[in-house]
Design a protein that fits this description.
The chain is an alpha+beta fold. The chain has a domain of 32 residues. The protein is built from 2 helices and 2 strands, in the order αββα. The chain has a two-stranded antiparallel sheet. The N and C termini lie far apart (55 Å).
Length: 87
């Protein structure tokens, strides 16, 4: 298990084995995600938004028309506006 010491400036050097395991390099960003009981998880932010291109593409489906997109947005807005209301 690796350990690190907090400096007087609030800085911590992430041990090399942890950096290697997380794929962190100079300039990498990390997120501190709060869990329960005052515990945190360090999550690397090493990806790039361009990595998501095509992730949701379904070659078997036809593109929606603007009218279909508008209708889906309106339906979603109406549904979210009804949340919490008794019927």
């Amino acid at each position: 298990m690796s350990t690190a010491t907090l400096s007087s400036k609030g800085q911590v050097t992430i041990p090399k084995d942890v950096r290697d395991d997380l794929g962190l390099t100079t300039g990498s960003k990390v997120m501190f995600v709060k869990l329960s009981n005052n515990q945190y998880r360090i999550v690397p932010r090493t990806g790039h938004v361009s990595d998501l291109i095509g992730m949701l593409h379904d070659p078997g489906s036809q593109p929606l028309t603007l009218a279909e997109i508008d209708e889906a947005i309106a339906d979603g807005g109406a549904a979210s506006g009804m949340r919490g209301l008794r019927q």
